[in-house]
Every structure is written in structure tokens, then in C-alpha cells.
């Protein structure tokens, strides 16, 4: 992507990847960094010779990526240029702006170690556990909005995956791996799980007295009141101290994956919170909304979900039970069948639909967020010498990092 290689293999001009001219230039610069080591001078071309440990240690010290943080590293200027400007201009510009966002976050949180969990909360809520906070500067606001919508997609996807995960577990608990279970039995279980008073007890808030027959608007109103989700905005921070919010529901699900009030009512509430925050059509015309339209072919994007809910609410009464059965039917059962069928001949089915019954398979299922690329990006920003290590409370910006953050370029 950054232009260091010419791709090879089927359909390309060469059978294997080969370095581009820029790639060869970077390789030569790295060779200068290790040229004086005993390993490179005496052992590099001798595969069967036993190498003394002190020779290996000397080479490790010179070849380590940590050396890129030094202004004297011969390959550092080339790699900075590649990461900031390599490849297509649109892609390079997006990469630079993401680097600036990361630098802005660490610059505002010099007393806090930042990991992926905190990074997600800082993006979405403007704060994280332990006191870290983040208010994006104007020059990175558009990039921040895109990353915030990316995290909204993560909460949305997590809730749907949790519904699927719990369905798979429930089916095996009911003996569905021995005999198919009527779908009517699933709907009975789902109705039992839509106990928002029991969910409220887990969150230490008064129960809303909402069940499957209550209107979805009543659930949205309750969440707006308790979570403080009004008015919807892509810019304003969300209340991380509210008794109910997306991350609290996520943590509940990760701690207790068997309680129906958490894995059914809790995940329905999480999806309803997404509707509260992003369900206003005015937000859908913002430039950054394209992130919410993303999704592989056949998958249901966040934007499609919000549009559909909006239309259903406009069409008249829409109960929580109807909303939940729609989610299970179209977003869990049907989607699993489509995705698993698309992977044939590999068998990835956790359940098959047989008429009005479901047959289950006892297989392990993962549950969690997708990788946000935080580790890869924070490591790159650090190892290019733009700031300190995110793993430590102090991670000051270097002069190059400060220049990139404030001007969008290097001096």
C-alpha cells in the first residue's frame, strides 16, 4: 500500500513480491544501520556457522525497530516519508490524519497509560476509566468523527454477535444438537429474556417496567433519560458516568454470558442506545457518515439498521418484542445462514434452519470486539519516533510529532 513492494503471484507480472525502487532504497538504508555489526560482516552469508550470543545481541541492538526513534537512524527519514506520504494520496492523507488523532490523544493524556480499551472509550465517550479525557482539536475533528462512528459500529456488531452467541449456547443447552428445536420455543425464551427490570437491577437503577409488549419508543425514552443521549451529536462527549451506556452493557455481557436479561434485554438495550445516539436523519448527511455505510456484500451496515428502525417507527406501533424478533430473524439467524453458506465447503454452521425448527452444533464461539488496530497504529507512531510509548504514563511528543500534530507535516 505504501509502495515498498511490487506485488507478485497469480495475475501479477512477477511470481513473487519484489522490492520497488523505494523499497530498495529503504533496504539499503537499513543495511547501513547494521553494516558495522560483527554478524553482518562475518556471519550474514554463512547459514551453518554457530553464532556467538554476544554477536547476536550486538545485531539485535542495531537492528531493533526502537532505533528508528533516533534521529541518527539512516532509514528513519525514508520510513517517515513512506508512512506519511507513500501510496495513493487519498490513502496517505487518511494515514497522516489518523497519526495526528493518535498524537492528539496522547498529548492530552500525559499522566495515563493508554490501551485499546481506554482508546475505545476516549473515542466514544470523551473519557475513560481512571480519569483520562479527550477533547479533539478542530484540526482532527473530521478524523475523530470517523473513528467515533467506527466505534459505534463496533458496539452495534458486538450486540448482534452477543445475541448470536447466546442463541448458540441456548440451543445446545436445550438439546438442540440432538434434535431440532421449534422456533416458537426460541420466541418464548426471548420474551422471557426481555426483562428490563432484571437488567436494571444489574445496573443499580430503578426498573422501567418494560416488557416485550411495550412500545419500542418507551425503551428509547427511558434510555434517553437514564443515559443522557439527547440531543444526538457526532461531536459532543457522552456521559461515561451515566448508569447505563454502551460500554457498561458490553462489560456486563463479557462477565456474564448466561443471564438472559443481560444477553437478550441488555443487547437489545445496547442497540436501542445506538438508535438514540445516531437515529436522527440529520446526522446521516454528514460527510463522515460513510463509515456507517461500510459493510461487506450481504452484510447489514449500521446505516441500513438505523434507516430500517426509523422507517418502522414512522409506520406506527412497534413493540420491543417485534423489534427483538426482527433482529433475531433478519440480523442473527438469516445472516448466520448466509455467511456460513458463503464459506462452503468449509462447514462453519452453528445452527441450521429446518423449516420452523433450528438444529444446533456444539462448537466453541468467540465473543468480543474486532481489533481496532490500536496496537499496530500506536506502535507505529511510537516506533517512528513521533511520541513516547503508549504503555507508559509519560509519552511526550517529539519535535517531529509536535510538528505533525500542529501543522499536518514534518519540518
What is this structure's SSE topology?
Elements: E1 5-6, E2 18-19, H1 21-34, H2 38-43, H3 53-63, H4 76-85, H5 89-107, H6 116-125, H7 141-173, E3 181-182, H8 183-193, H9 196-202, H10 216-227, H11 246-255, H12 260-278, H13 302-314, H14 320-342, E4 351-354, E5 357-360, H15 374-383, H16 399-407
Antiparallel strand pairs: 1-2, 3-5, 4-5
Question: What would you say this structure looks like, in words?
Answer:
A hairpin with a 2-residue loop joins strand 4 (351-354) and strand 5. It contains 16 helices and five strands. The model has no long low-confidence stretch (mean pLDDT 94). The protein is mainly alpha-helical. The chain has helices at residues 21-34, 38-43, 53-63, 76-85, 89-107, 116-125, 141-173, 183-193, 196-202, 216-227, 246-255, 260-278, 302-314, 320-342, 374-383, 399-407, and strands at residues 5-6, 18-19, 181-182, 351-354, 357-360.
Summed over residues and divided by their number, the pLDDT gives a mean of: 94
User: What's the number of helices?
Assistant: 16
Give the class from helix and strand content and strand pairing. Answer: mainly alpha
Q: What is the succession of H and E elements?
A: EEHHHHHHHEHHHHHHHEEHH
Largest sheet composition: 3 strands, antiparallel
Report the uncertain regions. Answer: none
Strand order of the largest sheet: 3-5-4
First-to-last CA distance: 24 Å
Principal-axes geometry comes out as: globular
DSSP helix fraction: 40-55%
Kindly provide the radius of gyration, computed on alpha-carbon positions and rounded to a whole number of angstroms.
26 Å
Number-wise, the strands total 5
